[in-house]
Amino acid sequence: MRIEVIVNNRKIEMDVENNEFLVDTLRRYGFNSVKRGCDTGNCGLCTVWVDEKPTLSCATLAVRAAGRHITTIEALQTEAKEVAEFLVAEGADQCGFCSPGFLMTVLAMKKELQNPTDEEIKHYLAGNLCRCTGYVGQLRAIKKYLGVA
Ligand code: FES
Ligand code: FES
Questions:
Q1: Domain of residue 134, CATH code
Q2: What is the pTM of this model?
Q3: From ligand 1's centre to the CA of 137, what distance in Å?
Q4: Does residue 28 line the site of ligand 1, with CB under 6 A?
Q5: CATH code at 11?
Q6: What are the pLDDT digits (tens) for 68-113?
Q7: What pLDDT is stored for residue 134 in this prediction?
Q8: Which ligand is nearest to the CA of 93?
Q9: I want to staple 8 with a disulfide (CB 3.0 to 4.6 A). Which of 29, 30, 75, 142 is the partner?
């Protein structure tokens, strides 16, 4: 099936299989920042935005992206770098495996939540797992990034 999608503000026609997941389609079309981790909708690594909302691309059929706006981290390099600097300053960056999905979620949270509490931040980020750092350093960094520390 052929679908039309807007990826990072550019209209693209994509050929997709009926049972293909969005993570595979995006990678096939060169958006290699989109990574696969657990492949079961649990780790958050494959997060992209669909119409500005963080969405697990390993659990979203590509056909459901037809006519939607998809955003990957390729389009948010400056913003992602800024968050990464806060993570580095708090010692919350290690292998970086979780970073692509984590950063997409943090950037969505910044747009969506005004002055969030610790609990609201933790709730928003609960779907993004990190096997290296623990979450205390991440929370410190994100609070500073959001200006709520
Ligand atoms: S790869 Fe999609 S949630 Fe883990
Ligand atoms: S920094 Fe290694 S998994 Fe998060």
A1: 1.10.150.120
A2: 0.96
A3: 22
A4: no
A5: 3.10.20.30
A6: 999 999 999 999 999 999 999 999 988 999 999 999 999 999 999 9
A7: 82
A8: 2
A9: 75
Select from 46, 74, 102 the last residue of a domain: 74
pLDDT of residue 107: 98
Work out which ligand 1 atom sits closest to the CA atom of 127.
3
Residue where a domain stops, chosen among 55, 74, 93: 74
DSSP annotation of 10? E
Write b or e for each residue in 27-60: b if 16 or more Cβ atoms lie within 10 A of its Cβ, otherwise e.
bebebebbbebeeeeebbbbbbbbeeebbbbbeb
Q: What is the pLDDT of residue 93?
A: 87
Ligand 1, residues 56, 61, 128: which to mutate, most atoms within 8 A of Cβ? 56
Dist. CA 104 → ligand 2 center (Å):
15
Structural domain of 106:
76-146
**Cα 47 to ligand 1 centroid, rounded to whole Å:** 7
The Cα–Cα gap between 82 and 92 comes to: 14
Residues in the chain: 149
* Residues 64 and 102 grouped into a single domain: no
Pocket residues for ligand 2 (CB within 6 Å)? 94-98, 130-133
Q: For residues 146 and 139, give the distance between their C-alpha atoms in angstroms, rounded to a whole number.
A: 10
